[in-house]
Amino acid sequence: MKNIKEKLAEAFRLYFILVTLITVLLLILGMTLDSDRTFGYEVFFSPLIYGAIGVVPVFFFGKDKEISMKKLLVQRFITLGFIEVVMLVLAFSASSIPTEKKSVVIGIAAGIVVVFLLSIAVEYIFELGEARSINKALAEYQKKRSGGRGLAKGII
Amino acid sequence: MEVPVVDVFYAESVDNRVFLYTAKESFGVRMKLYELEEKLRGRSFIRVQKSTLLNLMKIEGIKPALGGRYSAMLKNGEEILISRKYVTDLKNALINPGPKAGGKA
């Protein structure tokens, strides 16, 4: 139960990071490659849908398992590959995206990589903040515990 | 051989054997990791991986590692990975330390 809660919390946070980054990506790609196209309001669903696809791997990879850095990187590559495939399939099946243009397909593929890397960077920034607060609590803890009298001694 | 608790940086279970690591030496002990964890309850030791107990007093600082994990830099220069699963326990141990244990182990 705790595991599911943690995964949901992680997916929730990642979802909003992805939606933001995907919106910016669509803006840049659209303005650069297809600036004359017009859309209806339904296009606002796109970042929400793509963001939801982006968080699916969170539920499949067990981050509670202790894996090596190498395996973690392999997991990340697999996740990126999955997202690339799904997004490109969606792009090719959407009539509103001009996938007959090579530049559009390359732009989508490259943009997905950029969003993926940026999402990792944003999460790292959050974790830096977390580490700072843990370090602060650690310093206080060590100060209290080594404050002199009553330091627990013992022998193993 | 007797090892003072205050000198232990971390304890690790490797191939069904438990080792204590001080600044420069390591010692094998004849007990399971969970038994050692019980023995060290209240003495600033916390489980940070399935096979590792870490002495909170020997940590120099914590920094993020990939994948929601953290890395603890120890005062002797070593680094120990803190699994994502145990990060919450670490935070709780620091915020709610509980009573200190007294006397000999």
CATH level 3 topology of chain B: OB fold (Dihydrolipoamide Acetyltransferase, E2P)
Query: What share of residues of chain B is helical?
Result: 10-25%
CATH homologous superfamily descriptor of chain B: LytTr DNA-binding domain
Ends of chain B: how far apart?
A: 14 Å
Q: Residue-averaged pLDDT of chain A, rounded?
A: 85
- CATH architecture level-2 label of chain B: Beta Barrel
The H/E string of chain A reads: HHHH
| Total individual domains of chain B | 1
Number of helices of chain A: 4
Shape call of chain A = elongated
Largest interface: A-B, 32 and 44 residues
Strand content of chain B: 35-45%
- Number of DSSP E strands of chain B: 8
Strand line-up of the largest beta sheet of chain B = 3-2-1-5-4
- Radius of gyration of chain B (CA) equals 13 Å
Determine the strand fraction of chain A and express it as a percent band. Answer: under 5%
Main beta-sheet strand count, sense and barrel state of chain B: 5 strands, antiparallel
Note the total helix count of chain B: 2
Distance between the termini of chain A: 36 Å
User: Unreliable runs of chain B, pLDDT <50, ≥5 residues?
Assistant: none
Q: Can you tell me about this structure?
A:
The complex is a heterodimer of chains A (156) and B (105). The radius of gyration of chain A is 22 Å and the shape is elongated. Chain A is 72% helix and 0% strand. In chain A, helix 1 crosses helix 2. Chain A has one domain (2-143). Chain A contains 4 helices and no strands. With 156 residues, chain A is an all-alpha fold. Mean pLDDT of chain A is 85; it is low at 148-152. Chain B is an alpha+beta fold and 105 residues long. Chain B has one domain: Beta Barrel (OB fold (Dihydrolipoamide Acetyltransferase, E2P)). Chain B is 18% helix and 36% strand. Chain B is built from 2 helices and 8 strands, in the order βββαβββββα. Chain B has helices spanning 33-39, 84-95; strands at residues 10-14, 17-21, 26-29, 45-49, 52-55, 59-64, 70-74, 79-82. Chain B has a 5-stranded antiparallel β-sheet with strand order 3-2-1-5-4. The longest helix of chain B has 12 residues, at 84-95. Chain B starts with 9 loop residues before the first strand and ends in a 10-residue tail after the last helix. The mean pLDDT of chain B is 88. The interface between A and B is large, with 32 and 44 residues.
